[in-house]
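Re: that chain you flagged

S.,

Sorry for the slow reply, it's been a week of failed gels. I finally had a moment to sit down with the sequence you sent. For the record, here it is as I used it:
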Amino acid sequence: MGIEEKKWQGAPLRTDYHRRRKSEVQPQKRGNRKNLGPEVRQSNSTDKRGTSAQPLSRQHQGANDMHYHSLSEANEVVTASMMRGAFLGTNIKSNTLLTVFEEFNDRQEKLIGIDLAQSTFNKYDLTYRRLKEFLKVKMQKNDILLYQLDRNFVIDFETYLKTEYKLDTNSSEKLMRIFKRITTMCFKNGQMSKDLFCDHKLKKVKKDRGYLTKAELESIIDYKPDYLSKHFRLDIIGNPKYDKPFVREAYLLAKLPGRLRILPRKRAFDGFTSKHLELTRRYASNEELKANPPEADVFLAGSDQIWNPLFPNGKDPAFYLDFVQQGIRASYAASFAVDEFPQELRDVTAKYLAKIDYIAVREKTGLAVLDSMGIHNAETVLDPVFLLDSAHWRSIAKSPAHIDKPYLLVYDCDNSYAVKAIAEKVASEHGLKIYSVFDLPYAERCFTLCGPEEFLGLIQGASYVLSNSFHATAFSVIFEKEFAVVERTEKINTRMRDFTAMLGLSDHMINNEKDIPCNADWNEVERLLSDEIMHSKAYIDKVLNGGGR
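Prediction finished late last night. Pasting the C-alpha cells below so you have them in one place:
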C-alpha cells in the first residue's frame, strides 16, 4: 500500500556526491583503458568524516537522480538513509507504518490454528483497519513513515478511537496495546529511533459486570419505527392528501374494516415472536437507540432487504448500526435487493457502511453494489433460515385446518398475470388444487390471516410452490418441493436470481408458462447448499470469536 503522494517542494538533496571537486573525477587515457578497467578512477581524497570518497560514474549518477526523484514523489521528506536504501535495493515501503503492520499480519495469519487463535488475529486485523481509517480521515494520508511517528500521533489515535467509535477505556486499550506491539517491534529492529510508548502508559479499568442471562447474551433489538408499524394502526393516514378536517374521519372510517380484518394476522406474528425470539425493549428511532443503546460486544444487522434503497429502512441509519457506540459492528445476509444503487444515496450510505467492521450480504449482486461504493472486503453468506436444518423447521410448521391434498401453493406479491397463467397450467397438468397465501380470485382457498407457523405448514404440505417471494423459494428448497420463481415487476429480483444460480437451479427462474422447469436434482442441491452453510457459519464464528477486538 502506497504512502501519500506529494511533490518535494524543498531544495535538492545534497549528498557527498555533490560535494566532489571536478578534479576528483578524471577521465582515463584511451590507451590505458584495457589495463585500468573502470573509466572513473578511485580518488584518494577523504571527506570530513574520514571516509574514502567514491565518485559516481554517469551511469550511477543517473541512477542516483532517478532514486531521488522517485522518493521525493512518494514522501514528504527524503533522507540520506532513504537514498542509501534505494541505491542498495532496500524497499522504502518497509519503513512505513501500514506496510510494516500489513507484513506483520501476513505472517500472523499463517500461524492461525498452529500457535495463534483466530480471535487474536481478528484483533490485529481490526487495529490495522482502524489505523488506516485514522490516517485517511484525520491526516489525509494513505500511510506514514515510521520516523514521522511521535507521541502526539499515539495520543491522537487513542482519542480517535474513543470519540469516533465511542470506545471506553478498556476497549480502546485493547487496540492501543496491539499498536504498541508493532511500534515496539520496529524500535527493537532499528526501524525507529524511539519507543513511542515510553512515556505513554495504557490504562485499563477493572469491571465486575456479574453474570449475564441467556436473554442478555443473545437478544434481538426490538426496533419498530413508525414507517414499519403504522399500517397496523387504526388512526394512521396513509396518504397526506386525506389528512384534512372531515376528510380524515371519512378516510379512517373507510379503512377501518380492512384494518380490523388483518389484526388476527398481526397477532399471529406477534405470538410467534414472543414464543421464539428474545427481544430487547422497544425502540422507535435511531435517535432513541443512540440515547440508550443495548449493551453488547457484537452487533449483527440482518437480514433480508434491510438495505433496500426503495424502502424507508434502506435509508434508515439504524439498519447500518449507526447507533452503536461500543462493540463490533457486523452484518449478516443483508440485502440491497437491487442491481443499481441510487446515485443520490451513494455517498451517505457508503459513509454508514464504512463504519461496519464485517460485512456479509446475501447476493453476489450485493458485492457489486458495495464495490461501486468503495467497499471491497465484503463476502456473501446464506439467508439465516438455512442455518437451521429442515427437521427444526418441520417441528415449527403447522398445517391449517381442513387442507385437501394435493395442492399447488401460490405466493404472489404482485397479483401477477404471469403467475396466474403458470399456476393454472401446472394445476391442470398435475391435478392440483390452487391455494394462495394472499387473496387471489382464481385460488380455491386463500390463507390471508395465517402466521409464520401456518406459512411453513402450507409449503411443507404442497406438491408444488409457485412464487415471486425469496423466502417461499428458500423454504421450497429446505423442504425439497418442486417450485418455480416468477420475476417480479419491481426491480428486486436479484436475491432470487442469485440464490437459484448458486444452487444450479437457474432454470427455475421463469417468466411465462412455456418455461416451467424440470425436476430438481436434490442430491446436487444438498451438496452445494452444504458448502454454503459451512462458509456462512465460519463467517459468524469469525465475527463472534473475539469479534475482531
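What I noticed first: Residues 438 and 543 are 38 Å apart (CA to CA).

Talk soon,
D.
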